[in-house]
Amino acid sequence: MAAPTSFFTTHFPSDAKSLVIHPASTTHQQLSSEEQKATGVTPDYIRLSVGLEDAEDIKEDIDQALKKVSG
After folding, report:
1. Would the pTM of this model clear 0.70, i.e. be above it?
2. Are 33 and 20 spatial neighbours (Cβ–Cβ below 8 Å)?
3. Does a structural domain hold residue 25?
4. Domain count, the chain
5. How far apart are the C-alpha atoms of 9 and 26, rounded to whole Å?
6. For residue 37, is it within any domain?
7. pLDDT for 15-67, tens place per residue?
8. Three-state DSSP class for 55?
């Protein structure tokens, strides 16, 4: 198995690596909350962009992250 994917690092949206971001505090931070809402970005919205890593590694990383945040 390859090394675990690091979902919580900074990558460019056009990168080939998987990425999890919070748009309200990253890509859309310059917008007001009303403008964010108009674009579909809410405070609890998380964006997952799946990259070119091995599919099983991605699934394991997502599962691990969800278990960690759900206690």
Report:
1. no
2. no
3. no
4. 1
5. 12
6. no
7. 788 888 999 999 999 999 999 999 999 999 999 989 899 999 999 999 999 99
8. helix
